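can u do me a favor
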């Protein structure tokens, strides 16, 4: 065989691509073990930090005069779960004169009438709750959140998707972190309402538990870049504004804002010991739609933010972890490419 032979060149090209794909899988795979080790070595740090936060909160002015909070509920055609969500949010254990609720309703079905009726009833009970509609869906969820902030009176913005059910003490447990003026966001762990419905929901619960129990904890307690997961979290308004606000140029506006806030100097915190349960998708079509959004939505912030991350004033290890975090969905095409390349090489 001569090196200049087209078949030989093609053969070496296939081998090169195959090695690249295997190397990528090895890189992402070993990083999972690295995060596991960091989680094991830092797992008590979160509890110690929270105990310290509670001690500082107990002597702060917020202990007797809590800050104003706006709860934002971005909704789109959620007729089956909107009642459950509103019931949970309106039962939050927080002073009513410090709590404001916004239902950011972009629905196009009868959810609009359901929300209008429910909101009217809660208003009659004395709750500060508003039903906010827009002329269009510009910017989708990011646009709805940005629109709601224009009239929100809260210093802090708690965000819940329609399939979540926040516990009554959610605000009581998360607000103390913000006594530190550099904390911009607090994310809690996702729980599950229906993990045993089917094999699909069981598989989802295992994957989500792995992310929230190990990956988020390892990142938060190791000083690495952390991301807001779009719901079951609370933001400081100032952090959102200084990071450039909600932007709709990616499908994962939550991850985009998280990285921009940290690049601007804000700290993000994670609370593993506080859980906010949610309903897992029961249908394969809903699960595929969710995964498509997460998949494409993580690559878009990667293209947008990696240049800024490389220039950031942080350790090389933190930059390395941030890049792996933003591009981790590349595992899927790498797996497919490895399978198809192995056939001709064999």
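np, heres the sequence
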């Amino acid at each position: 065989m001569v090196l200049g032979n087209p078949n030989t060149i093609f053969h070496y090209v296939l081998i090169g691509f195959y090695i690249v794909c295997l190397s990528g899988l090895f890189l992402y795979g070993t990083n999972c073990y690295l995060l596991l080790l960091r989680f094991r070595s830092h797992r008590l740090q979160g509890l110690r930090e929270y105990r310290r936060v509670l001690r500082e909160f107990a002597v702060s002015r917020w202990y007797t005069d809590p800050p104003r909070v706006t709860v934002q509920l971005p909704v789109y055609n959620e007729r089956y779960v909107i009642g459950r969500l509103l019931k949970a949010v309106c039962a939050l254990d927080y002073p009513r004169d410090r709590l404001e609720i916004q239902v950011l309703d972009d629905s196009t079905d009868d959810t609009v009438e359901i929300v209008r009726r429910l909101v009217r009833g809660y208003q009659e009970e004395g709750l500060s709750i508003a039903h906010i509609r827009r002329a269009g869906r510009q910017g989708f969820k990011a646009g709805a959140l940005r629109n709601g902030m224009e009239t929100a009176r809260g210093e802090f913005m708690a965000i819940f998707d329609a399939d979540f059910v926040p516990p009554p003490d959610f605000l009581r447990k998360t607000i103390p972190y913000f006594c530190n003026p550099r904390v911009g966001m607090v994310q809690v762990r996702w729980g599950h309402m229906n993990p045993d419905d089917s094999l699909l929901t069981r598989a989802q619960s295992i994957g989500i538990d792995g992310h929230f129990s190990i990956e988020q904890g390892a990142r938060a307690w190791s000083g690495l870049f952390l991301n807001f997961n779009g719901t079951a979290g609370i933001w400081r308004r100032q952090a959102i504004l200084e990071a450039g606000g909600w932007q709709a140029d990616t499908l994962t506006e939550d991850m985009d804002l998280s990285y921009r806030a940290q690049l601007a100097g804000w700290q993000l915190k994670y609370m593993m010991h506080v859980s906010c349960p949610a309903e897992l998708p029961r249908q394969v079509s809903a699960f595929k739609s969710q995964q498509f959004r997460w998949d494409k939505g993580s690559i878009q912030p990667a293209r947008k933010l990696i240049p800024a991350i490389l220039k950031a004033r942080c350790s090389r290890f933190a930059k390395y972890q941030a890049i792996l975090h933003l591009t981790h969905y590349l595992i899927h095409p790498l797996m497919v490419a490895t399978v198809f390349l192995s056939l001709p090489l064999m």
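The two ends are 18 Å apart (CA to CA). hope that helps!!
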